[in-house]
Amino acid sequence: xxxPQGDSPLEGRMAAEIPRLRAYVARLLGVRTxxxxxxxxxxEVLARAWRYRASFEEERALGPWLRRAxxxxxxxxxxxxxxxxxxxxxxxxxxxxxxSPDLPAQREQLERMLAPLSPIERESLLRFHxxxxxVAEIAAAMQLAEGTVKSHLWRARRRIxxxxxER
Length: 167
Known about the structure:
By secondary structure, this protein is mainly α. It contains 8 helices and no strands.
């Protein structure tokens, strides 16, 4: 059965929650709802919620579950920012010590994960996650609307998650 708002009833329910979730994420971050930080965090919340959708009980209210996920995303981002050493503070010996000896195997695994993506999905994903570019920066660089970039990121993350479940 095809649902009018997406592939599953949960997808339609998630789509309906996006405006409230966007406002909640913006409040947690202390930014405007149109801020690139709020949009990036929102996309991460939706990706995480989709990844863990099997843990959601369909008869329960979706809003509180999504807000808990949003809070976790915001807290995880803050923790990562605090833990991340500033590039200027690192000396070459520290950088060498942090480099994984199994880098070729990791690179090969990453290439396999990215293989099913279209070139535009791959570029969007790498710019966002590898280079740390915001949705607005990616949109400007690729001459796309921000919503289009978000769609490419969403599809890329979904394809990677689906590929992970197939294994």
